[in-house]
Automatic annotation (TrEMBL):
UniProt-listed Gene3D superfamilies: AhpD-like
Residue ranges annotated for the Carboxymuconolactone decarboxylase-like domain, each copy included: 287-363
Key words, A-Z: Signal
Xref: InterPro entries: AhpD-like, CMD-like
Source taxon at top rank: Bacteria
Pfam families listed in its UniProt record: CMD
Entry keyword Amino-acid biosynthesis: no
Signal peptide (residue range): 1-23
The protein's name in its UniProt record: Carboxymuconolactone decarboxylase-like domain-containing protein
Amino acid sequence: MNRRTFGKTVLVGALALPSRAVALGPSVSGGGRGIPLSRLREQMKAQGGREVRVPLLPEAAEALKGVESLEAEGSGRVPHYLRAFGAVPAAARPFAQLIKTVYTRGSVAPAVKLAMGLTLAQLDGSPYAAAHLERLLRACGEKGRSLLRALEVGSYSGLEAPERASLEYARALGRGPTGLDDATFDGLRAHYHDAQLVELAVTVCFSSYFTRLCEGAGLPIEPWAGDTLPAAIPSAAESSAPRVALMSDAEFDAYRELVERAKSGQGAAKSLGLGIAHSQRAMVRAPEQMRAWFGYWATVREAQAVDTATKLQVSFAVSMQNGCRYCTVHQVVGLRRAGVDVAKLIAMKKDDAALTPREKVAVVFARQLTRQPIVSSPADYKALEAEFGTQGAFELLLQTCAFNFMNRFTDGLRLPSEDEAIKVYQEVYGPGSYEGYRKRQ
């Protein structure tokens, strides 16, 4: 497998899954180009009276006042994807900032990124996410409409080469980190420089997060969504940047922030002892997206209705399900530092027998939502809620979404594991275990 230079980081070959995860396979919900938009529209209409699974914030809630919504200013429209944070209200505002940053800011045209998001909604079979992403795409002028036509007919042949490459990349990585081959990545790389590649990676990863949040929470479409457009979305400025982008002032500033955070007590406590992780070193190339993602996630992590070990169990299960070598190794580090017994860690590589009944409820839900978001049922979420309560269930939903994001980001870019992470992994599974894991591909 090829090695690629990514800034100063070498993107090495992704590692194979343990045997149990190979049997489960990555998330593939649609096959081909996913569910046709016409069918998703029909499903969306049928779900108008859908039973929402999470407490919704009131539209006039303090947490939603002044948010940077993608809806037209003064419209009074508050989408359910922002109201869904009733269990963790403090996260609503940074989530609004995150979704706006991912899709409308940066150097890649918003229409392209929204079309990538809509591709993920097709793959994951999410009528709700598809409805909103289609609305946003229609607000992007002629470029948005041409991309929407391509998605409607299921053919990219009439698009410009960079747009075709972007959608093929979204389709490949959207299936899971093991679904992205060298040819597809190299096709994208021919049109974008490194900073833009990270921006596009974040777009796909966030879209995977978004579809699972919408389906896991059971969000029904708003009555106004089918008949109105959001605010007009401006096009990105044409970029004449060199193919190998020079590091910008914004990237330097963002990296200094990471260094300061790593030196602080709080940063060190949350870094698993790894300093600045390679995932952070990569994401800093898209500083706006990095700040929005980490700012949002820092707010979510403040919620503590579920203990850290259980959340790590969920992250481990999702990473195994998706075949993410980088995140699987990180979760082993986290679980080991949380005091989980080595024997239990070894057993968890094979099956769920070592999990407590409470842990198993969380893990089974996380795997199901990871594998096929649209199959997740109200009964699945109610079982989670019965065990962990309203806030705890929502925290675990967000944890599941987060590692569907991170798995695609880290292994989609083939980020190498940090030396300290490899060391801890080998302390758990024995000398040479990491190399053995790495060669099973």
